[in-house]
């Protein structure tokens, strides 16, 4: 039992339990225990999400602005060059520190990393750094004249402006490169030369192809989902197996199958030639371009549109259509004014799912995309695996993530996430 008593030791009244303790304190203790138990239950999942999702994204964002390779190799130069105003060539003090750092960097075998890092800013400068480092130990004061005598490129103020920018461990140059921008000689942000403007085009192509794939999956998946929801159970189960069959087949196998179907000497072209639709000389190029990417991705991602649509359509009572018909609506009017609006949550869920998957797709565009069908994800993988420019890859990934979040926010404003349902 709980007794209502007056606590003479306190100025305020309160309820006490039968053992003389405060009821409020006991309830607070029980609440804390329940919260602790609940936290311990979700702790493994929370730890898994942090390790596999939050932490990698955080590392990616950090790498996109952190660039310590040059600063680590030229630490003394990074200190003294900060006082340089960026006009002309730096002072003899900077050249002296630079030569000393170059000698030490070659000894520590870090000159290659430093040269690679500045090569991202000014293509062609890595060989300048590594070549000069081999002779740096023999240079004598005044080092400004000595360096220029070794290679006249050291008289270029643009190189020293890049050295000054890289004297900081943190930089925005990777993000500028991701947007086809760069720093000029005076430190101003300018557009890259036309022959080096590739990333904005790739971003636009990625969103364009993802949007087309989303649209085609809606057009193809909507009637399939409708049939699944209205056909008898035995027939709908057979159709559902056919829809889910791609999930049971390797993605690589499905993509390779499309190569066999779409190539110029492939099955589709052979059939078209056989029935006389096209001549043998005018075979259609359906692969290693955007068309091949769109066709293959639409087929692979179609189930991700069908399943949300089916789960929503299955919950729509058939009596709604019968009621509309009984009130005088035609079959078409009842379908477009009653049934179709009720399926919008499924369309929204499938669209978001397909679009986000399309934006980050990698294997299919790499195999069937060719020069015009590759997406930004393929370029990110190339920088990670081939050029080893992890900073630029991280910046591209961060911009892609930000773009998806902006589109998700825009979708929430226009349609509303609350209206998106998977069943």
The CATH superfamily label of the largest domain reads MetI-like
How much beta, percentage-wise?
A: under 5%
Q: Write down how many β-strands occur, each being a DSSP E stretch of 2 or more residues.
A: 4
Order of SSEs, N→C? EEHHHHHHHHHEEHHHHHHHHHHH
CATH class of the largest domain: Mainly Alpha
Helix content: 55-70%
Number of helices: 20
Cα(first) to Cα(last) distance is: 48 Å
CATH architecture of the largest domain: Orthogonal Bundle
> Which structural class matches the secondary elements?
mainly alpha
Biggest pleated sheet? 2 strands, antiparallel
Describe this structure in words.
- The structure is a single chain.
- This protein has 423 residues and is mainly α.
- It folds into three domains: 2-63, no CATH class; 69-196, no CATH class; 199-419, MetI-like (MetI-like fold), CATH 1.10.3720.10.
- Helices cover 66% and strands 3% of the residues.
- The chain contains 20 helices and four strands.
- The chain has helices spanning 23-63, 69-73, 75-80, 92-108, 111-121, 126-133, 143-150, 157-165, 173-178, 199-230, 233-244, 251-262, 267-274, 290-313, 319-326, 331-342, 344-359, 363-368, 376-387, 390-414; strands at residues 2-5, 14-17, 181-183, 189-191.
- Strands 1-2 form a two-stranded antiparallel sheet.
- β1 (2-5) and β2 (14-17) form a beta hairpin.
Descriptors:
423 residues; mainly alpha; MetI-like fold; two-stranded antiparallel ribbon; 66% helix; flat; disordered N terminus
In short:
This protein is mostly helical and 423 residues long.
SSE order and pairing:
Blueprint: E1 2-5, E2 14-17, H1 23-63, H2 69-73, H3 75-80, H4 92-108, H5 111-121, H6 126-133, H7 143-150, H8 157-165, H9 173-178, E3 181-183, E4 189-191, H10 199-230, H11 233-244, H12 251-262, H13 267-274, H14 290-313, H15 319-326, H16 331-342, H17 344-359, H18 363-368, H19 376-387, H20 390-414
Helix pairs in contact: 1-20, 4-6, 5-6, 10-11, 10-14, 10-17, 12-14, 14-17, 15-16, 19-20
């Amino acid at each position: 039992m709980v007794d209502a008593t007056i606590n003479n030791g306190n100025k305020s009244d309160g309820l006490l339990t039968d053992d003389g303790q405060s009821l409020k304190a006991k309830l607070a203790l029980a609440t804390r225990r329940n919260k602790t138990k609940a936290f311990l239950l979700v702790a493994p999942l929370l730890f898994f999400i942090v390790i596999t999702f939050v932490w990698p994204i955080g590392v990616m964002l950090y790498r996109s602005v952190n660039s310590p390779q040059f600063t680590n190799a030229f630490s003394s130069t990074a200190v003294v060059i900060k006082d340089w105003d960026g006009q002309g060539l730096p002072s003899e003090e900077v050249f002296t520190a630079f030569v000393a750092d170059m000698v030490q960097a070659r000894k520590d075998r870090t000159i290659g990393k430093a040269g690679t890092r500045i090569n991202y800013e000014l293509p062609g400068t890595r060989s300048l750094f590594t070549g000069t480092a081999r002779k740096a130990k023999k240079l004598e004061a005044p080092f400004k004249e000595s360096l220029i005598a070794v290679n006249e490129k050291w008289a270029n103020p643009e190189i020293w402006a890049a050295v000054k920018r890289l004297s900081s461990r943190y930089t925005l140059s990777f993000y500028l490169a991701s947007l086809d921008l760069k720093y000029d000689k005076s430190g101003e942000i300018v557009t890259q030369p036309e022959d080096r403007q590739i990333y904005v085009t790739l971003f636009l192509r990625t969103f364009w192809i993802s949007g087309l794939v989303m649209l085609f999956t809606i057009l193809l998946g909507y009637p399939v989902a409708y049939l699944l929801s209205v056909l008898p159970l035995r027939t709908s189960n057979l159709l559902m197996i056919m829809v889910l069959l791609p999930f049971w087949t390797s993605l690589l196998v499905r993509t390779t199958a499309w190569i066999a179907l779409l190539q110029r000497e492939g099955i589709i072209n052979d059939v078209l030639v056989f029935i006389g639709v096209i001549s043998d000389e005018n075979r259609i190029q359906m692969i290693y371009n955007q068309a091949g990417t769109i066709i293959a991705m639409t087929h692979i991602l179609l189930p991700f549109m069908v399943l949300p649509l089916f789960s929503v359509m299955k919950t729509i009572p058939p009596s709604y259509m019968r009621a509309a018909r009984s009130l005088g609506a035609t079959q078409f009017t009842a379908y477009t004014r009653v049934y179709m609006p009720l399926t919008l949550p499924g369309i929204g869920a499938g669209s978001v799912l397909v679009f986000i998957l399309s934006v980050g797709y990698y294997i299919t565009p790499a195999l069937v995309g060719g020069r015009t069908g590759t997406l930004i994800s393929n370029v990110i993988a190339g920088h990670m695996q081939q050029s080893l420019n992890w900073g630029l890859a991280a910046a591209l990934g961060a911009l892609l993530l930000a773009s998806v979040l902006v589109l998700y926010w825009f979708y929430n404003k226009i349609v509303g996430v609350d209206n998106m349902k998977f069943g």
